[in-house]
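Notes taken during the Thursday session

The instructor put the following on the board and asked us to keep it in front of us for the whole hour. The protein is DNA repair protein RecN. We were told not to look anything up and to reason only from what is written here. First, the residues (569 in total):
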Amino acid sequence: MRPRVEEVRIQGLGVIDEAVLELSPGFNVVTGETGAGKTMVVTGLGLLFGGRADPARVRPGADRASVEGTLVIEPGGRVAQQVEDIGGEIEDGELIISRTVSAEGRSRAWLGGRTVPVGTLTYLADDLVAVHGQMDQQRLLQPARQRAALDRYAGDELVKPLRAYTQAYKRHKQVAAQLEELTTRARERAQEADLLRFGLEEVEKVDPKPGEDDELRGEEERLSHADALRSAATTAHTALLGDPMEAAGGARDVISLLGEARAAVEAVRDFDSQLAGMADRLAEAGYLISDVATDLAAYAESVEADPARLAAVQERRSVLSSLIRKYAADSSGVLAWAQEAAARLGELEGDDERIDELTREHDELTVRLTELADRLTKVRESAAERFGKAVTEELTALAMPHARVVVELTQSAEFGPEGRDEVELRMAAHPAAPPLPLTKGASGGELSRVMLAIEVVFAGADPVPTFVFDEVDAGVGGKAAVEIGRRLARLARTAQVIVVTHLPQVAAFADQHLVVEKASDGSIVRSGVVTLDHEGRVRELSRMLAGMEDSELGRAHAEELLGLAAADR
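Then, after some discussion, the predicted structure tokens were revealed:
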């Protein structure tokens, strides 16, 4: 299912007070008397897809002009994904787009119920609609669009070499970026390598051990307080076991007191099991305190004041602290930094070799890209020649027999994502004229016909689902007008087509005929849009042919046109 515009509501735009356009998936035509507001339909569509907001278009007496469009889109498709990315909502495959323009010139836009910048509508329009009007910027006039359309026109012949080129181009770009990074930052990388070498030499010279800083901190504490530690251990030992140098009857120690307590309880333990348990616990306490006292004595003998060792420990801690301040939070972190630094230094020291490897690969890829780009150019040149001939033939049938369209290919000096070719569509208005860019080689009316011819030739290759043409038949009549209608109908086989026309020969080919009707109420002119049935179409075509809706001759001619168009479709 291809996206399409299902319905458009216009309010307060030019002479249109309020109108609803119900559009078919195929060929839609909009007609009406001069001044009825046909062009406002195209203007409304332009606003809906991000066109310039002109406050002069707001209907006199109205506060604002508004346009709302209902689009049928493919769930999960590119457009649906873009809407979801900005937080818009899609219900049952339908997307609502709204745009308002105030009389003061302020413009607001909504997409899927969410307020968005107008530029978002313009971006979305690239995948939805192509507007071809005398005052519009044409989508296919953009160089990138022209190249993309030509590539699709070239078809399968271009697919394989373009895929190969794209892969080579991506790798070429990666290699070039790596080379630039290695060469332009050579000085910074050399400085980084020097700093890493200096740091590694410092670490190697100090040779720290994991957890060494914590161990040295503890040793320094012990050495700095050796006298206090020995005194505390001796005092504690004396309190537990007593001082053998003191006379009997001196201060009583913990072991003696525990012994007395145990002896008192042991004497009566057999009379109560609960007291017996306490006696056992007193015995255990005695053993435990004896062990502690023994350890305290050993500790007191082992603690010695060693000024030389203390100085060595303090000096080692100072050296380690210097490393830690520079490279990590502790000695283990310094060792981890050194490991990482060594790996990074290995990378930096291998840069010269890496540069040589990348340079060779870059040169090989450049040769490969040149070959692939030349293949792309040949395929495009062949497609461009076929395309130019096809469009020129279409222009002959569209009352431009002397016009000629060519596709000019020029090569840029640099490789691009799609090759080195720059594509530009050009037109020569007559045999003696040089081919000029489309905007310079054709007038407004001619340009619409040229774009119609291009779109017809590109039909199926260009993925845009909706085309809008305004005054595509300007200055044309008779057989050429029939050919325009026939080609619009042909384009409508693969896309939705909306055309504003004043020619009955064009209108007869439409699948859906909308007429802009003008009503005058005193000094106020209002217009609305009506969808015509078969009888309505006959009357409207008769008016367009003879100027009178009920002319028998006009009605007969209108029926003939409708029959001719139906048979041709």
